[in-house]
């Protein structure tokens, strides 16, 4: 088991280091957002409509949950290292902005719906921030959401049926209604840096 975790961690790290630059379609000139340190560049759209299931077992759409500035992450609750660290970082950045009276909604979307039931993903999300929304769904629903955000994931082949790992991309996507995804945060970004960039972008788009 320890060997599997080490292999998965190495694979995820390699994906992050060697991954391509995220590209988004913006309603505002990308150079304007660059003033905030935004890393996204104009091009093919990232993000789009999705239909998933929330912690209450209710079917929701992107319009239901992305009602204001939101930071979105794709992962899974059994993830041994990267997912909880990134979820915590996004939650900490959200708390920093809470103290300034700026509300951002952190969203955690599972790419492992076989194990991540609505109850499981909801409890996982709420452990990091009381406003963090946990979403799951059918394999078709979660795959469609992942494709809309151009994320990568691959279930471990020939893994233990209960304890398998999932290799996946580790970016977080900052989405503001009317603008879409306007920034992408990597795994190494600090809570302070993420909060600062989100605040700047909210001011610019508000």
Automatic annotation (TrEMBL):
Keywords: Copper, Disulfide bond, Metal-binding. Signal peptide: none annotated. Disulfide bonds join 79-83. Cu cation binds at residues 79, 83, 168. Belongs to the SCO1/2 family. One of its GO terms (molecular function) is metal ion binding. This is SCO family protein. Pfam families: SCO1-SenC. It comes from the Bacteria. SUPFAM superfamilies: Thioredoxin-like. CDD domains: SCO.
């Amino acid at each position: 088991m320890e060997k599997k975790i080490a292999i998965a961690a190495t694979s995820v790290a390699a994906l992050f280091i060697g991954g391509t630059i995220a590209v988004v379609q913006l309603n505002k000139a990308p150079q304007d957002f660059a003033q905030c340190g935004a890393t996204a560049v104009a091009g093919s759209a990232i993000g789009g409509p999705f239909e998933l299931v929330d912690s209450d077992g209710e079917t929701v759409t992107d319009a239901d949950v992305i009602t204001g500035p939101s930071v979105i992450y794709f992962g899974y609750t059994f993830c041994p290292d990267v997912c909880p660290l990134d979820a915590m970082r996004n939650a900490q950045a959200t708390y920093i902005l809470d103290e300034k009276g700026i509300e951002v909604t952190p969203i955690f979307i599972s790419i492992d719906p076989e194990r991540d039931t609505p109850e499981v993903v909801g409890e996982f999300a709420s452990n990091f921030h009381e406003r963090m929304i946990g979403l799951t769904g059918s394999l078709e629903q979660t795959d469609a959401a992942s494709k809309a955000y151009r994320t990568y994931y691959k279930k471990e082949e020939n893994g233990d049926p209960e304890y398998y790992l999932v290799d996946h991309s580790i970016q977080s996507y900052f989405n503001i209604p009317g603008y879409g995804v306007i920034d992408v945060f990597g795994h190494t970004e600090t809570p302070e840096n993420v909060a600062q960039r989100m605040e700047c972008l909210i001011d610019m788009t508000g």
